[in-house]
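example protein:
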Amino acid sequence: MRHMRTVLLALDKFKGSLTAADACAALARGLHSAARGTQAARAPEASGASGAPVSSGTGLRVLTVPVADGGDGTVDAALAAGFVPLAVEVAGPLGEPRTVRIARRDGVAVVELAECCGLVHVDAPGPETHARASTRGLGEAIAAAVADGAREVVVGIGGSASTDLGLGMLAALGADLRGDDGRPLPEGSAALRSLVSADLSGARAALEGATLTIASDVTAPLTGPDGAAHVFAAQKGAPEDSLGQLDEDLAHAADVLLRDADTNPRRGPQSDAFAGSEPSCPGPVPTGPDLVPDVTGKADTTDVSGDPTASAGAGAAGGTGFALTLLGAQTRSGAEVLLDMAGFDSAAADVVIVGEGSLDAQSLQGKAPAVAAARARSVWAQGASPQRQGSSVSGSGPTSHRSRTVLAVAGRADLRSEDLTAAGIDRVLTLRERTASDEDSIARAAELLEDLGRQLGHELGGDPA
């Protein structure tokens, strides 16, 4: 009897073209259209299952797990994993009201900074918008999740519009932040230098009974040449000649938070949160003869001995990572968090297809494609696929090591073959190879992914090409 190969699609968004779920759906359609005798069978409806159809009699079984890495698309990926949405109204990056979604399931809520107050909601980023942009909406969404009964809140913090050190978020949660005039601190990065006192007790009280998990792939410290100001602020509209002052303002405000909130890293109650944070990207897993690729990204060379501002990830989202850690949050790789939610390891897949719009050096620095490839290699090398309760995918038992492969699809790819091998990716197929221009590949992304799916369907289990 012919073995039915399980193909797991774990795609991130194709930015400017398709959400992660839409990209998975387009590729799945192509895989099925290539198969002989497709029947109306469907994947088992486990919690959060995508409902991808099964190609019967052709040796292919297709499952989909839309993924994200903590940036935009994080809530979409959680909803695809079986979470349900809760609509709440929050302040956008410039204070405008926005209705956003919180994903929730079994006491866990997922909140996405990019959806609440991300850069995507600023039409023309510039010095004025950057000076005003705030994370208040994120704090309001976290508060709403806790009020709804969440015991754990996963906070995806990619795609921010602000460099406000998360002060807007803290204020929305109940922190008392005062400027040099004794009044409540205004919103935005322009007010950082005016902060003279901070009392975080109100914010901590608002979170009583709930834990926070930061989902992020950013390892930047808060300040310095690799920090929030110098690396990220310009793309949010900050003038290049202001970055040095902004860096100093972040350092000043962080010192006030540490001092006035009684969170000195050598004696304060929140020092354990910094010391205990997991790396923001997964490390290599020893696996014997089949090496699992190292997707740790940039080496963390920051000195974290007693200085929370130097901790990896403190500079994420304009310093929001630092502020969340003051509230006791622990940091995890965003992609790892979303893969866990979807039950990725339980799929027992023979073929894993990863991908995103642009596959480049940044993709190897803790982004979803590299993390999913590494996870697949790790599961295969361990020789077991534990079935997790509530997982959104399920499959058959392990198969021959030789038949297992990790493929990647992307709008475009700019990686050397040795980089792909190190990341555990066997082969890349791009949309750009099938079109005359980047613009065409973006405009026709769904159609081209379906074409790629047909090609792979023939190769993996459909009619001979």
Summary: The mean pLDDT is 83.
